[in-house]
Amino acid sequence: MTKLRVATGRGVCRKLKKLGFKLIRQRGSHTFWRHPDGRATVVPIHKGEVLGRGLLRSILRDIEVSVKEFNDL
User: Which fold has domain 9-72?
Assistant: First the structure.
């Protein structure tokens, strides 16, 4: 099993852009992302903090991307 690397909210947003997701809206520190095929997720952005592993796995489940694919971006 591939180990999930720790990431910040901004780092995840950059990877989502590479995957073709578009920023739909932002409310406070939470950004809403959607792909043209219908996949969507929410990413919190808090300066200086990394996302917890559970939250990151939940985001990966939402966007239907494996840990290996995510780490390779």
Answer: Metal Transport, Frataxin; Chain A (3.30.920)
